[in-house]
Amino acid sequence: MVHEAVNQADKESRSEAVAAAPVHVRNILEVKNLSAWYGNMMAVNNLTMSIHSRSITAIIGPSGCGKSTFIRCLNRMHEVSDGGRVEGKVLLDGKDLYARDVDPVEIRRRIGMVFQKPSVFPTMSIFDNVASGISLTRLWSRKRDLQDVVERSLKKAALWEEVKDKLNQSGGSLSGGQQQRLCIARAIAIAPEIILMDEPCSALDPISTLKIEELMLEIKKDYTVIIVTHNMQQAARVSDRTGFMLLGELIEYAPTKEVFTVPKDKRTEDYITGRFG
Amino acid sequence: MITQGAGYLRRKWSSRAMLILSGLGAGLCILILALILGYILFNGISYLNMDFLTQPAKPVGEAGGGMRDDIIGTFILVILGSAIALPVGLMAGVFLAEYGKPWAASAVRFAADILAGVPSIVVGVFAYAVLVRPMGSYSALSAGFALAIIMIPVVARTAEESMRLVPNSVREAALALGIPRWRAVVGVVIPGALTGIVTGIMLAVARIAGETAPLIFTALGSAFGYQGLDQPIGALPLQIYRYALSPYDDWQKQAWAAAFLLVIIVLGINIVVRLVSRRRRR
Ligand SMILES: Nc1ncnc2c1ncn2[C@@H]1O[C@H](COP(=O)(O)OP(=O)(O)OP(=O)(O)O)[C@@H](O)[C@H]1O
Ligand SMILES: [Mg+2]
Fold first, then answer.
1. Per the confidence metrics, is the pTM higher than 0.90?
2. Has the ipTM of the complex gone over 0.95?
3. Which CATH superfamily is domain B51-281 in?
């Protein structure tokens, strides 16, 4: 199943079709009146937005405004936090993620996530890290079967050339930027439809950042990417649409060009011009 | 000015006194260990030979003989105790670190800490009451059970603590990959905590290898070697106890040799633990 989903030929033909008809976008994810709490503290307040498929959506906003909380609600990771509680709907292809009969584990396989801090599994080799999303959900898997997926994922994450000769070394032996790309490869390996990235470059140098941005533009052909970032230039460079959050609310959400050139809301303008607070 | 000077002198001297006292305490620690080791070595070394390790005990009056059966007995009891305590202790540790709701976890943690503090002779009496009496015989099994009770809280707490050291971000990363909770625990958290868990297990083994009081009520000791799990069995600490109190010079010497062997075993385990946990820090 995983193999089929990552099937290269299939993906390529799909992305060609998209390139030929770029106007056709669908709302892969629809967030409706989403609120999230930590205990009694509300972190996301009645948020509604639609995410276009095969595009990059950036979420910006000052520290503590609820960006991380919001994207963690999109793959049911928020409920893992202490006191985490969610209200409202998130429709993935029309089906509510929070419906009673939905298994959060299944959702997380369809909506992957990359964290701010590279979270490589320290006891595993590079190979096993990439394969972990597959090998740890099956009772048994042969290394030979995983080889293809691992190689393809590492290539997509622009890490293959750097690690192909040391796949058996510990994942922790890589540099920070390499570790982050390893985490991206790991997320890609399970072939999710959407990838959430929470400040994936905040701990990286400009060159690693550039690599990851290129990578985002590359994988957007096949996946839908939602990225939280503090870096305004980054949002402007890579994203198709940008949402600005403030105190748990979505203040403005529009094509990136518009948000950065003609923001509708005074608060958005203040924030992106650095006149905030 | 003058009062300041006096204050300075007082501080200087009280600080120096503290240094001297703490140094004395530290020195005594080492001295006591050195004395024990030296004394046991001095008395026991002459009897620690091949016969001691490979021969069964001889009846009173006959010269020679060794503690082979009691060495084997100690190994059997340690394995038996571990076989019971490891699954229970590890699962309890997993519960404490991964699954327990805060109130449930602190209740279990409290119980484990109390259990760890129960005097071992009480554990022995308990095993006597629930196993030896109903079964009608002293037995290896009841001794293994008593040792397991001593071992469980140690294993559980060290397992818990080393699993807590695995950062939460690693757990979340596993969950975010759509890995089920139990697989994340088995496949990611436990491997990350493994050296700590192994360290705890070995320290617990070292602890029960030298326990004596519970064995008096359960293993009893045996003059015929291993007879079966439902029969009495010998063990090094028991034999030390018995031989050291005997009036026979020969036996007393053997007791010293056995004490030396026991200390070497425990010391050996501790050194291995050191090596293991040093490797982990690197
Ligand atoms: N685990 C938690 N428990 C309780 N409150 C939390 C927790 N995590 C975040 N919060 C609170 O929720 C609010 C939103 O936090 P969130 O992490 O979503 O902000 P953010 O926009 O991602 O900030 P940053 O840009 O600094 O990462 C903050 O006020 C924060 O203090
Ligand atoms: Mg954040």
1. no
2. no
3. MetI-like (1.10.3720.10)
